[in-house]
Amino acid sequence: MMAYALTPPQQAYLDIVGSDEKFPVRRIYCIGKNYVAHVIEMGGEVERDPPVIFQKPNDSVVRNGGEIPYPVYTENFHYEGELVVALKSGGHHIAVAEAAGHVFGYAVGLDMTRRDHQARALENGLPWEITKSFDHSAPIGPISRIEDTGVLTAGRITLSVNGETRQDGDIGWMIWKIDEIISKLSEQFRLAPGDVIMTGTPAGVGAVVPGDELVVHVDGLQDLHLRIGGPAA
């Protein structure tokens, strides 16, 4: 038996709809600027450039019904509701036509963002990590198996704050579709079982404050419920 100098960190996991089994999270890949209207609202140019790719740490996962503290180092904390894809297998150079065969299932997620620092990073050509990859930045709901949902190519995606709809779109509006995203990611990374992919957000992103209640919905999947707590210690 291997002896560690420190207690190993706990394995991050997601719940699975209708099962006591858990989905172990290996890596969290994120796709930016993947809905035309969101690109426009962020001041970008609408072109089908290669997907914008970044990652979040797997221990930033917050499961359904959780509360996340208002993070340090921001005064403009934003939500981005997203469809999440969970992989059961992977590899390098996956063909678009074969990508769906690697999908375990789908979930609803949030790419929480320190928007003020993202704006400064973009202005200065700096990496996005400090704006995206912080504690509690990846709330993700239970995974529905692909056998139960079928392959998702369209469906309404909404986000509400305190009962008011803020985002309302359709996953069919993605610039880069799910199969294309998996294929593109596999050109640069060896994908593996346990990887999850946040596929981008539609228009309507905005700020939240302590006490706000968020609900993210994608047709056919279990909603994600989240509360914003007080300032992080």
Describe what this molecule looks like in 3D.
Pfam families: FAA_hydrolase. This is Fumarylacetoacetate hydrolase family protein. InterPro entries: Fumarylacetoacetase-like_C, Fumarylacetoacetase_C_sf. By secondary structure, the chain is an alpha+beta fold. It has one domain (13-231): Fumarylacetoacetate hydrolase, domain 2. The protein contains 5 helices and 18 strands. A 6-stranded mixed β-sheet has the order 4-3-15-8-9-12. It has a 5-stranded mixed β-sheet with strand order 6-18-17-13-14, with no helix packed on it. Strand 13 (156-161) and strand 14 form a beta hairpin. The longest helix is centred in the last third of the chain and has 11 residues, at 178-188. 40% of the residues are buried. The mean pLDDT is 93.
List keywords for this structure.
Fumarylacetoacetase-like_C; hydrolase activity; 233 residues; globular; Fumarylacetoacetate hydrolase, domain 2; metal-binding; 33% strand; hydrolase
Give a quick summary of the entry.
With about 230 residues, the protein is of the alpha+beta class.
Mean pLDDT: 93
Structural class: alpha+beta
Count the DSSP helices. 5
Architecture (CATH level 2) name: Alpha-Beta Complex
Approximate helicity band: 10-25%
Assign an overall shape.
Answer: globular
Q: What series of H and E elements makes up the topology?
A: EEEHEEEEEEEHHEEHEEHEEEE
